[in-house]
């Protein structure tokens, strides 16, 4: 893993050099998530690197994962974080999940959560997995897919 971590670090450095953006980068491998974690300190460029609703950050992650696949010959999970954006987003999603689960238990009615990306739905599914009073389910197809949080009967 050490060699792959070094390779990914070099790719990240090269990508940001080509972009003309000065950043500090830390790359590590997370055994628990089976993923390479790329933490970027964007300094004055943090907002630019995150983008609107994290869109630029997601694009950077996709580009790095694709280049890393070409370089190593196999797909690896690459998670990119800029300025603790992922932690803040995860906290927001957990709060959203708790509120929806609470409403579902109180009202007895399913609570839909719309406009979530697949990764965001996954975070909520995993977060609420241990709550024995509710169940979660993704419903719909493609752009119309949403998360349903409903009380168990």
Automatic annotation (TrEMBL):
SUPFAM superfamilies: R3H domain
SMART domains registered for this protein in UniProt: R3H
Transmembrane segments: none
InterPro entries (alphabetical): Jag_KH, KH_dom-like_a/b, KhpB, R3H_dom, R3H_dom_sf, R3H_KhpB
GO MF annotation, one: RNA binding
Domain R3H: 87-153
Protein's recorded name: Single-stranded nucleic acid binding R3H domain protein
Lineage summary: Bacteria, Candidatus Woeseibacteriota
């Amino acid at each position: 893993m050490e060699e792959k971590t070094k390779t990914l670090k070099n790719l990240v450095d090269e990508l940001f050099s080509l972009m003309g953006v000065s950043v500090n980068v830390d790359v590590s491998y997370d055994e628990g998530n089976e993923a390479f974690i790329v933490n970027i300190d964007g300094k004055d460029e943090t907002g630019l690197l995150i983008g609107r609703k994290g869109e630029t950050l997601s694009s950077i992650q996709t580009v790095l994962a694709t280049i890393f696949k070409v370089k190593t010959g196999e797909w690896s999970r690459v998670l990119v974080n800029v300025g603790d954006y992922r932690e803040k987003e995860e906290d927001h999603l957990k709060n959203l999940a708790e509120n929806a689960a609470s409403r579902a238990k109180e009202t007895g009615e399913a609570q839909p959560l719309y406009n979530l990306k697949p990764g965001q739905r996954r975070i909520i599914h995993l977060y609420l997995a241990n709550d024995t009073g509710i169940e979660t389910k993704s419903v719909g197809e493609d752009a119309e897919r949403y998360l349903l949080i409903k009380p168990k009967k």
